[in-house]
Each structure stands twice: as structure tokens, then as C-alpha cells.
């Protein structure tokens, strides 16, 4: 396992734990599948009775496009690609993707229908393939959307300065 792969895996797992904690606080019954075997069989989490594949998109905040993964490999020099994301072998019905501020839930079947071969790109590192989903398509296909304004896309808190009263403003001048 390369250092890059291990680093990305650790980031993704931390984000998955964040999503579980965040949705739990909202009263949504969500449980993370902790073992690799369970994740391969069912997906990363279970929300109510349904399983969900999750993917952290670290570039969404910069590009405004979601990257919908279809294949991956640990190292660019590997010849074989492994189905992942919306084509992972799990029985997950849903696909959740986003960052710490924005989270989108899609039906995997709907995403598979729009994953035409001409849309598929390989990221520069050569370890992931997928397609970019622009805003209009995202809004049409998403079944649930969450926007948490108390955190930035990287998970850091948003600090809001307290409002000063007119009297406090006069005294500060």
C-alpha cells in the first residue's frame, strides 16, 4: 500500500465517521460498516434499512463539480482496474458523495444510467476513473442534499464574529 493510498484511505474513513456523527445528530439512523468484508458486501454505511457507498470529494469546493467514481486501483502502474463507487460490488442502493460542508445522496442505478463511456475520465494520478457531475445534473439526480454552514469543506469550523450593538460600536470608535 503506497503512502498516498494510505493517506487517502485515512481521510476517507475520517470523513465517513464525520458523516455518521453528523447524520446521527440529525436523528437519522446511520451505522458505519466497520470491517472491510462488510463494506465490500454492503457498502460503507447503512441508513435505516438501506446500504450506502460513500465517497469524499476533496475538490468539489474548488470545481463545483462532483466526481462520481466508477473504478480505482491502488497504484497507477497496476494494469487492472477494480470496479468501485457506483459500480462497486456491494449491494448498496445509494451513493453518498461530498465533503464536510456539502453532502449529496443519489440512487446508484440513476448514476449508472448517466455514466456513459464518453464521460469517463481518469484523474491525473492515474488511480481513479469516473465522471464529473455539474450543478444542474446534480440537482436533478440528488435525492437528498445537506449543506452544513457551520463547517468549511475541509471540516474546519466556521467562526462567526458576534454582532455588536449600536452602543458597543459607539464606544469602540
What do you see in this structure?
- With 173 residues, the protein is of the alpha+beta class.
- The protein has one domain (3-172).
- The protein is 32% helix and 26% strand.
- The protein has six helices and ten strands; from the N terminus they run H-E-H-E-E-H-E-E-E-E-H-E-E-H-E-H.
- It has helices spanning 3-25, 36-42, 60-63, 108-114, 135-141, 166-172, and strands spanning 30-32, 45-47, 50-56, 66-72, 82-83, 94-98, 102-107, 121-122, 128-133, 144-147.
- The strands form two sheets. A six-stranded mixed sheet has the order 1-2-3-6-7-10. A four-stranded antiparallel sheet has the order 5-4-9-8.
- Strand 2 and strand 3 form a beta hairpin.
Amino acid at each position: 500500500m503506497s503512502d498516498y493510498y494510505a493517506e487517502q484511505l485515512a481521510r476517507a474513513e475520517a470523513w465517513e465517521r464525520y458523516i455518521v456523527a453528523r447524520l446521527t445528530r440529525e436523528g437519522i439512523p446511520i451505522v458505519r460498516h466497520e470491517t472491510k468484508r462488510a463494506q465490500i458486501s454492503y457498502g460503507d454505511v447503512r441508513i435505516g434499512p438501506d446500504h450506502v457507498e460513500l465517497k469524499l470529494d476533496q475538490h468539489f469546493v474548488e470545481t463545483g463539480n462532483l466526481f462520481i467514481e466508477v473504478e480505482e486501483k491502488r497504484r497507477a502502474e497496476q494494469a487492472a482496474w477494480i470496479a468501485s463507487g457506483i459500480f462497486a460490488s456491494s449491494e448498496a442502493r445509494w451513493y453518498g458523495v461530498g465533503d464536510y460542508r456539502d453532502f449529496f445522496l443519489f440512487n446508484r442505478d440513476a448514476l449508472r444510467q448517466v455514466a456513459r463511456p464518453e464521460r469517463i475520465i481518469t484523474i491525473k494520478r492515474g488511480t481513479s476513473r469516473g465522471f464529473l457531475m455539474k450543478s444542474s445534473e446534480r440537482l436533478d439526480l440528488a435525492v437528498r442534499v445537506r449543506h452544513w454552514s457551520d463547517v468549511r469543506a475541509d471540516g474546519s469550523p466556521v467562526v462567526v464574529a458576534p454582532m455588536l450593538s449600536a452602543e458597543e460600536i459607539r464606544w469602540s470608535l
